[in-house]
Write a structure and sequence with these properties.
The protein is built from 44 helices and 17 strands. By secondary structure, it is an alpha/beta fold.
Length: 920
């Protein structure tokens, strides 16, 4: 390595200070044995302790075997393996407990063996004993306790001892040891349920039943640990201290993820090596590959005991404050000013940060003042319920919650104010009781939909006056109304939607104060009036505040700014053929087509975004969403991702057309949805909105999206091909006919043939009718109604087929003037009334001439279906032969419309609900 690529302890301290101050990445700390060895037996001494556990008749063989191994580490592993083989796992654990107990001041040397044999006594000592803790752990714990809750990630260690947990406890952080001696690592979901700070002992724990000591177990592949690391490393800073990096199962996983997934994970690895010689540290071992990986930094000459010196700033909380619970940050009672604050980023749509919420930075909206008043009422009642800011995207809810949290923290010192960070554990009764035991607590949560179920499950604890627990929440209004039925009586909801004249005045003054008054506004008064006017126009569109800000600040120049942003994102390559601009455009496209104001829950999901790039969903939050959040100010509501305003989405879609990149993006979205469908995605993952995007489009855009879905689904899905046939039919009749003709003979080869055969028959029927082939068109529509074609006929498919059949038979009658089929359109009309209602019949068949409709309405569904089957049997048989459809052999008989009859009998309403027997 070049010397400039290697850092020292001072470089590492600066890096850690920056990590703490920026507080935008999780810190995962990995400890090897280097620090614990200051107070515990080293490898040679522990090897000797293993020997003491070996029966006398086996010691000669034990000594002879170990003598052949010069490496102290491998000698230790071989000793553990032999002891396990001769005596059992319990003997290894007994020796490990005896070694750990040497750091416990309550155990005399002569009592070590007896206490080590009593696992419960060891557990008691871990909780209540007096321990010698290495200074490296103590200093780390003080540093760690001061970090923002967003930064405090899991601690991982290869050690068996509890000294890290004891150091954390002394610093005010309750922790939970999780032994992982075999491949039994928790999932990321399980880890997120931890109430206390997790410490993963990846080689086992001293009071556990087993550890990883023997070579086979230590080096064995650990796929579950690998999966956990993949999730943990996303957008994280990994600090490795006191760990040599020899190739155990953990190192294999870390090396694999850093080398092969570094670009997607966006992880930063800070490797602190004790040795000062780079050749000694790197050698020919695993680090030789890691040092060349993106995001990997090597620091030499780092003593883990002095790294976390007392002058190493944590960047966040005052030293006198207790550490916040795992997954939370404590809102400071005295906000710290930030000299480097840049107000323009927030004004242009970036999600608010704590610097934005400092008093006097930005005005409190009228709705924010009301939110503060409702929180005060809950606090005056000593807890029980709280307040929630609700409204569409871009209305100031997130900033308001932060502003109120800061004000409350400063004004009410008797309350601790906790802010929930992403990935925090579930709110349980146990957790609430633990938190409130430390004092009255206001719990603040943005994106409150994430905890609604938790709040319902724990109402008995917090939902009463005097509970000592109150909540300050923010939520998209749609998500709140959908999920908070059991919570609404306990919360005052404050609507954020629109601004008052006073709000507009205060915003304009803040712009002037921050040097951000628009150039075209002569003074604060003009900016205020334009804000009021713009917000009023946009109220009906579902988005007022941010939309008004964009309109006033940029006006007609917004298009140029958005197009510049798109060009900037184009420079971030994700694959050889894909860039970040394509992904952002896909997000904007789905929003523009399906969910302009972000209030229908139909934007691009995280799963769809990851699928656009061909990555696992776990990567969506790393390289893609975080970058887009920073550069393009995308926002998240539930599981959906939106740009900050519908006008931005519309500009991006128009820009695509100008740069001729539209087809690529439409196909990209459709393909992402199709690939998720064949991968077995659930509706919760939001794949259908992308997969069936074409059904909400017209023209070439529909064809592009449908083609993408076909590519995504591969070679054996009919549904996506039916969507493409529909899109082609509306865009290019000749191409639609050719495509339908090509598909027809092969329908039975698709895995979803029975589910979607009816849809294909109707679409192809419409294509043929448009080409003047009315007779064949009618035959296909009739086959789409037959009981024996596909799965059971439902009202939707029946309605679709009846409309095509009625129109086709009207064309046939005009061409042939055959009396026997003259009533077919009227019969279809009446059946459509009874199956789907009079409104739909009028909507889709209003142009038909139906002179006999009155007398046909008097007939029973059975008679109507029977007459229709007789009229169309020959046409259906001919159509089957002409199109070479691979339909069931039983269809040689007369058409069967029993399912259609039952649908017509079952429906109530319409022009005349049929009562069986009334016309017999």
């Amino acid at each position: 390595m070049h010397p400039i690529d290697v850092g020292d302890v001072d470089d590492l301290r600066i890096r850690l200070e920056v990590t703490a101050q920026e507080a935008d990445r999780r810190l995962i700390t990995v400890f090897g044995s280097g620090i614990s060895s200051a107070v515990l037996p080293g490898v040679p001494e522990l090897t000797a302790m293993f020997r003491e556990q070996v029966p006398s008749r086996g010691r000669a063989r034990f000594d002879e075997t170990l003598a052949q191994e010069p490496n102290a580490g491998l000698k230790y592993q071989n000793a553990a393996a032999m002891l396990t083989r001769m005596v059992g796992e319990h003997a290894v654990m007994r020796a490990i407990r005896a070694a750990v107990l040497r750091a416990c001041e309550d155990v005399r040397p002569e009592d070590l063996a007896a206490v080590a044999n009593d696992r419960e006594k060891c557990q008691d000592l871990e909780r209540d004993g007096t321990w010698r803790v290495p200074p490296g752990y103590e200093r780390f714990a003080r540093f760690f306790s001061g970090l923002n809750g967003r930064v405090r990630g899991p601690v991982i260690t290869t050690n068996f001892d509890p000294l890290i947990e004891i150091a954390l406890r002394r610093a005010g952080i309750e922790s939970m040891a999780y032994p992982v001696p075999t491949d039994a690592a928790p999932t990321i979901e399980q880890l997120n349920q931890f109430v206390f700070q997790p410490v993963l002992h990846i080689h086992g724990h001293w009071t556990g039943a087993a550890t990883s000591n023997a070579p086979t177990r230590i080096t064995a592949p650990r796929p579950r640990l690998d999966q956990l690391l993949q999730r943990l490393l996303i957008d994280s800073v990994v600090l490795v201290v006191g760990y040599s990096g020899w190739l155990d199962g953990f190192m294999k996983s870390l090396r694999s993820r850093v080398i092969y997934d570094a670009d997607s994970l966006q992880a930063q690895v800070l490797w602190a090596a004790y040795e000062s010689d780079v050749a000694v540290v790197v050698g020919d071992g695993p680090l030789k590959e890691l040092v060349e990986a993106p995001g990997f930094s090597l620091y030499l000459g780092v003593d883990g005991h002095t790294l976390f010196s007392d002058d190493l700033g944590d960047g966040t909380e005052a030293e006198s404050e207790e550490a916040a619970p795992f997954g939370y940050s404590r809102v400071p009672r005295q906000p710290r000013g930030t000299s480097s604050y840049q107000p323009s980023a927030f004004v242009e749509g970036r999600q608010p940060e704590w610097a934005d919420a400092e008093p006097g930075r930005w005005p409190l909206l009228t709705a924010t003042v009301r939110l503060r008043e409702e929180v005060d009422r809950a606090l005056d009642a000593d807890g029980g319920g709280g307040a929630v800011a609700i409204g569409p995207l871009g209305e100031g809810k997130s900033l308001a919650v932060r502003q109120v949290a800061v004000v409350v923290a400063e004004a009410r010192p008797e309350w601790q104010v906790l802010w929930r960070e992403p990935g925090a554990p579930a709110i349980t009764e146990e957790w609430l009781k633990e938190v409130v035991s430390l004092g009255r607590t206001l719990i603040c949560v943005d994106e409150a939909d994430l905890i609604m179920d938790d709040l319902v499950a724990t109402k008995d604890v917090w939902d009463r006056e005097g509970s000592g627990i109150a909540f300050l929440l923010a939520s998209h209004d749609r998500l709140w109304w959908q999920g908070a039925a059991h919570l609404r009586p306990s919360f005052e909801d404050i609507l954020f939607h629109g601004i008052t004249r006073e709000d507009a005045q205060n915003l304009a003054e803040a712009w002037e104060r921050n040097g951000l008054l628009p150039a075209h506004a002569s003074d604060v008064g003009e900016a205020r009036e334009r804000l009021i006017d713009s917000a009023g126009v946009m109220t009906e569109q579902g988005n007022t505040l941010f939309g008004a800000v964009l309109d006033v600040r940029y006006g007609s120049g917004l298009s140029n700014r958005v197009e510049d942003l798109l060009r900037k994102l184009r420079q971030v390559r994700l694959t050889d053929s894909l860039d970040l601009g394509d992904v952002f455009a896909g997000i904007c496209l789905m929003q523009h087509v399906l969910d302009k104001d972000g209030n229908r829950g139909r934007g691009a999901s995280r799963a769809v975004i990851a699928a656009m790039v061909g990555l696992d969903t776990v990567f969506a939050d790393g390289k893609i969403l975080k970058t887009l959040g920073r550069e393009a100010a995308v926002t998240i509501a539930g599981n959906r991702v939106y740009c900050r305003h519908p006008s931005i989405a519309a500009i991006v879609v128009r820009a695509l057309e100008k740069e001729e990149g539209a087809q690529k993006v439409y196909e990209l979205v459709g393909q992402a949805g199709g690939s998720l469908f064949v991968a077995g995605a659930t509706d919760v993952e939001g794949y259908r909105d992308a997969y069936l995007l074409s059904r909400n489009l017209r023209g070439p855009e529909a064809v592009w999206a449908a083609k993408g879905a076909v590519v995504g689904t591969g070679n054996d899905v009919l549904e996506s091909r039916v969507s493409l046939l529909r899109a082609l039919r509306m865009e290019d009749r000749a191409k639609a006919l050719a495509y339908g003709r090509e598909l027809a003979p092969h329908l039975s080869e698709y895995r979803d043939y029975r589910r979607h055969i009816r849809g294909f028959l109707v679409e192809y029927s419409v294509c043929l009718r448009g080409d003047g082939q009315a007779q064949t068109s009618a035959g296909l529509a009739a086959l789409a109604l037959d009981d024996r074609v596909g799965f059971n006929l439902d009202a939707s498919r029946a309605g679709y087929a009846l409309v095509s059949l009625a129109k086709s038979m009207a064309d046939v009658n005009r061409q042939t003037q055959v009396a026997e089929t003259a009533a077919a359109p009227e019969i279809c009309y009446v059946l459509l009334e009874r199956v789907r209602g009079a409104e739909e019949a009028t909507k889709y068949l209003r142009e038909l001439k139906i002179p006999r409709i009155g007398e046909i309405r008097e007939l029973s569904p059975g008679k109507l279906c029977g007459q229709l089957a007789q009229m169309l049997d020959k046409a259906a048989t001919a159509a089957k032969g002409e199109t070479r459809l691979p339909l069931p052999s039983g269809l040689q008989d007369l058409l069967s419309f029993d399912d259609l009859r039952r649908l017509a009998e079952r429906r109530e309403g319409g022009t005349r609900a049929y009562v069986p027997g009334a016309d017999q």
